[in-house]
Amino acid sequence: MKKILFAAIAVFIAVVFMPSCKKTTTPDPTYPIPTNLKLLSNGYATGSATRVEVYAADSFFVGYNQLYLALYDSATNERVMNADVTLNPMMTMTGSMSHSSPFENPASSLAAEGLFPCAVVFVMPTGSMGSWVLNVQLLNHTTGFSGTAAFSANVLNPTLAKMKSLTTLDDSSKLFISIVKPINPLAGVNDFEIAIHKKTGMMSFPAANDYTTVINPQMMSMGHGSPLNENPIFTANGHYLGKVNYTMSGDWRIYLHLNHNGAVADSSLYFDIIVP
User: Fold this and answer.
1) Which of 1, 59, 71, 117 is packed most tightly, with the most Cβ within 10 A?
2) Are 212 and 253 in contact (CB under 8 A)?
């Protein structure tokens, strides 16, 4: 009887104190920065006890810039995984004038694999006409502190335009149309995504959600188009997603026709693309 009792107790202890094989659900605060991203700016958000690093796949340029922010506690250097982040890009023009540009704040206050994805559409390059500052306002939910970091942004003009501006034919709206995808076009069918923003003031560039689009890709040197294209349709937040088929490498021109409330908004817009 004693042997049975001791055996039962031993089994009970083993079960209760056995190390669990269940994986932890606690987020790993040590997410490595993806190797395809490079550090563009870093500094402290004054008052928030937080260091901010700004990453992107390329340097700042005129057009749609997909950015990723990494936040660190300034005392412990641990990753901040919960914060409210608000962007405020500002260009100070030569003289006393200044203006903002379209931007997209992170969709969540929780980091995605350690990063806060966001975007800015820079509407003109840094140069003789003015200079850019990217302001990043944040509330660190871990500490409860808030503050702002200000980063100088050297915005370059790409060889092939990634953003076009126009005044619409139907209601004289000022629009900015930016290529979002593909970042690196390849021969074959590619996702083709654009973002459309409307200028309603020097500090106001809301997403334009009520347009329809028609694309017509043409290979300029060969004098032909391509099949299997899909016109971009509205998804969310001023973004329109479709497909473009580059049937071979070379120089392509994507003609983009815009309609608004049944009327032609623009029929002269195009983007030149080089497919390697």
Assistant:
1) 71
2) no
